[in-house]
Specification:
This protein has 166 residues and is α+β, with helices and mostly antiparallel strands. Helices cover 36% and strands 18% of the residues. The chain has five helices and seven strands. It has helices spanning 53-56, 58-62, 86-104, 119-132, 141-157; strands at residues 11-16, 25-31, 34-40, 72-73, 82-83, 111-113, 138-140. The two termini are 41 Å apart. The mean pLDDT is 83.
């Protein structure tokens, strides 16, 4: 077992980084159901054990005292958030979406997906937004986040991709 400042790591759990669309492989050092340390997974094909600082500081982010652990609902903009069950939350969201769509049409709602969604998850989210709710307003971090990078590549290198380094 590897030592952490306060507790010994009980096991290492394979995972992936939630921050960008690369999906670097992580090994999470866990003890007492808490993530104590993150290191790169050398067997993962996209990162081969390397990590950026975002992933390294993930344990601290998971342990903040103000981290939201349960659904919260407020019934008006000025009202306080109150803890709710998942069933209450889903019923409330269903009702609010229905109200918004009935009053303003389906294009009054939009979805913004994570760069970490799988192809299958994108498909399901698109079916929900476009096929079921009737809005075309669905986009993702994986496309929008890269827009400024691509613009920079074009102005700097003349092409919308990273240059090949030989």
């Amino acid at each position: 077992m590897e030592k952490s400042p306060a507790t010994a790591i009980e096991r290492w759990v394979k995972s992936y980084c939630p921050y960008c669309g690369v999906g670097c492989g992580l090994l999470a050092g866990v003890a007492s159901r808490s993530v104590l340390k993150i290191k790169g997974d050398s067997d993962h094909p996209s990162s081969r054990g390397d990590l950026c600082l975002k992933a390294v500081y993930l344990p601290e982010v998971l342990r903040t005292s103000d981290r939201l652990l349960y659904p919260q609902i407020r019934t008006c903009q000025e009202g306080p958030f109150k803890r709710a069950s998942w069933d209450q939350t889903m019923a409330y969201l269903t009702s609010r979406y229905r109200q918004i769509i009935d009053e303003h049409g389906p294009d009054a709602i939009a979805f913004y997906g994570s760069g970490q969604l799988t192809t299958e998850e994108y498909y399901i989210a698109n079916k929900l937004a476009k096929g079921f709710l009737g809005t075309n307003n669905f986009d993702t971090n994986s496309r929008l986040c890269m827009a400024s990078a691509v613009a920079g590549y074009v102005s700097s290198f003349g092409a919308g991709r990273t240059p090949l380094l030989l």
